Amino acid sequence: MSKLLDKLSEYLAHRKGLLPIIGILFIIVNLAIQFAFPLSMLAFSNIFLHIGLVIAIFGLMLAWAL
User: Fold this and answer.
1) Residue 56 falls in which region: left (phi positive, over 0), alpha (psi -120 to 50) or beta
2) CA 28 to chain centre
3) Which of 5-38 are b and which e, b meaning 16 or more Cβ less than 10 Å from the residue's Cβ?
4) pLDDT tens-digit readout, 12-53
5) What's the pLDDT score for residue 66?
């Protein structure tokens, strides 16, 4: 687990904006689902919005630390 975390932090150190961009893409996917499938369970739960926010905030905090 330690080696995996080490490799992941090394990879993300050179790509500081990757996680916030992935988070923004999740938020855009959630917006598209809201318009494409307004009555689906995914539209009501906003799961991609929540996951995108967590990933983007984690990415910003990680970029600040690295």
Assistant:
1) alpha
2) 11
3) eeeeeeebeeeeeebbeebbebbeebeebbeeee
4) 778 888 999 999 999 999 999 999 988 888 889 999 999 999
5) 67
46: left (phi over 0), alpha (psi -120 to 50) or beta: left
46 by Cβ neighbours in 10 Å (0-12 / 13-18 / 19+) ranks as middle
How far, in Å, CA of 31 to CA of 47, rounded? 11
40: left (phi over 0), alpha (psi -120 to 50) or beta: beta
pTM: 0.81
CA distance 3 to 34: 39
Q: How far apart are CA 66 and CA 60, in angstroms?
A: 10
